[in-house]
Amino acid sequence: MDRCTPCEIVPDYERPGGCWVNPIEAGTLGVVSRRVQFVPWRTAGRVTEQQRSVDEVVQETGWVFNNETGSSLTLEQFVLTGDEEVSSYLTVFGLQGPMNEDKIFIEIGCGIGRMTCALTREFGRVIACDLDAGFLQRCHETVGRFGKPDRLKTVHVADGKSLNLPPDSADVAFSYITFQHCDADDALSLSSEAVRVVKPGGKVALNYRSRSQYDVVLLPLGGLVRLLFRVPGLGGWLSGKRVFARLGWQANRLEPDEVIGPLAPLLRDVEVWRNPKSRTSGYKAAIKEFDGINKHHYWIIATAR
Ligand SMILES: C[S@@+](CC[C@H](N)C(=O)[O-])C[C@H]1O[C@@H](n2cnc3c(N)ncnc32)[C@H](O)[C@@H]1O
C-alpha cells in the first residue's frame, strides 16, 4: 500500500471520505519525521503497510494499540476491545445519547481504528486524527468493515502537535492512550488544539498518564531507548521490537494542573476522572472515580466556554 498522499489539498469540511494532508505539512514531513518520539509509530505504520490484510496488521501490530498479542488475533476481536471501551467511557463520562447522530466527534490518536468503529456507530461525523498516515489508511479499512465509513474523515497530524481543523467545529474532542506517548510540549499543544476545535458548550475528554514510582526507572530507560532510536540501522530494528518500543513511548508524565492551568479560562465544569486507587487531583477540578480507568491514567473531562 502507498503512504497516504495528499488526497485533498485544501480541507473541505463538508466532503465525506478521504484524508486531509495540509500542503505545508506534506512539504515538511521529512523534517518533522526525524523527531525521535515519532519513530516507533512510524515504524509500526510501515509494518501495517506491509501486511496483506487488516487481520495480519492486528497480529503484527495489535500490541502497539492496546497491548493485545496473538497469532490468531483477528481484527474483529481487536475492534471488540475498542467497542467495549468506547461504550464504557462514553457512558461514564455522560457522552452517550440519541442526539449524537447529529454531532461531530474528533478522535486524536486513532491508530488503525480500534475505537473509531464504535465511534462512527454512535456519532454522525467522526474526524479521526493520527501522526502516522499509514495508520489512517488502515483506519479507513477497519471502519469500512466494522463501522460506518460514510461518517469518517481522517486528518494527518504531520507535525505531531496541531490539528488542521477549523475552530469551534466539533461537539466532542477525545483522546485515549495517546498524549502520554507525545513529547510534553506536543501533548500540551494537542490538548489546547482539542479545546480550540470544540464549539462553546462542547466537551473535551482527554486521557493522560500521571507520575508513579515506576517512573524512576521507566523514564530514564525510555530516554535511553529514544536516543538509541537515532542510531542508523539499530534504531529501526529496536523501534520494531515490542519491549523497546514500549520503553521508547514513555515520553511524558503530565499532572492535571499542567494541562488545566493554561486552558482554565477556556473551560468550565472541569472534572478529573481517576481510578479509586489513584490520588491524582487537579486545582478546582471535581474528582470523579471509575475503576475501569488504569490506575496510572486519568482523564480530564470539561466543557468548552
Ligand atoms: C497507543 S496508540 C492508541 C490508539 C487508539 N487511541 C487506541 O486506543 O486504539 C497511540 C496512537 O497515538 C498516535 N500518536 C502518537 N503521537 C501522536 C501525536 N503527536 N499526534 C497524533 N497522534 C499521535 C500513534 O500513532 C498511535 O496511533
Explained architecture:
The chain has 305 residues and is of the alpha/beta class. The protein has a single domain (19-304), classed as Vaccinia Virus protein VP39 (Rossmann fold, 3-Layer(aba) Sandwich), CATH 3.40.50.150. The chain is 41% helix and 18% strand. Helix 2 (39-50) packs antiparallel against helix 3 and helix 7 crosses helix 11 (256-263). It is globular and about 50 Å long. The chain starts with 18 loop residues before the first strand and ends with a strand. Residues 1-34 have low confidence and may be disordered. The site of S-adenosylmethionine has 20 residues, from helix 3. S-adenosylmethionine (SAM) binds at residues 41, 65-66, 109-111, 114-115, 130-132, 135, 157, 160, 176-178, 181-182, 186.
Please report the distance between the alpha carbons of the first and last residues. 42 Å
Biggest sheet descriptor: 9 strands, mixed
The number of distinct structural domains comes to 1
Radius of gyration: 18 Å
The level-1 CATH class: Alpha Beta
CATH architecture: 3-Layer(aba) Sandwich
Helical segment count: 11
Feature tags:
305 residues, alpha/beta, Rossmann fold, nine-stranded mixed beta sheet, 11 helices, 9 strands, globular, binds S-adenosylmethionine
